[in-house]
Amino acid sequence: MAAGELGNVGAYYFRFLPQKTFQSLSSQEITSRLRQWSMLGRIKAQAFGFDQTFQAYRKDDFVMAFFKDPNVIPNLKLLSDSSGQWITLGFASGRLRKI
């Protein structure tokens, strides 16, 4: 099975786009509001591309393929509830890896 394929679930291939920026999160007005609400540094946007046309009736397959894709697992960042630190979706020795 090739990278990004999930057999019967779907053959979506995702790629991480680390250079993609989101102006809506970096404007001075938004930065000021995020700081006011204690959210500055606690919200992050990441971009991933995929190789097929999105079809709404296959949304469940799409989501399952996304979270199981080998290009998503080591790159998707999550904010840990317990430590407040950014961690990746990937597992190392049964625990989530810190970044």
From TrEMBL:
Localization annotation: Cytoplasm, Cytoskeleton, Cilium axoneme
UniProt keyword terms in alphabetical order: Cell projection, Cytoplasm, Cytoskeleton
Coiled coil: none
CC per GO annotation: axoneme
Function, as annotated: Cilium- and flagellum-specific protein that plays a role in axonemal structure organization and motility. May play a role in outer and inner dynein arm assembly.
Family to which the UniProt record says this protein belongs: Belongs to the CFAP300 family.
Entry protein name: Cilia- and flagella-associated protein 300
Originating species: Aotus nancymaae (Ma's night monkey)
Gene: CFAP300
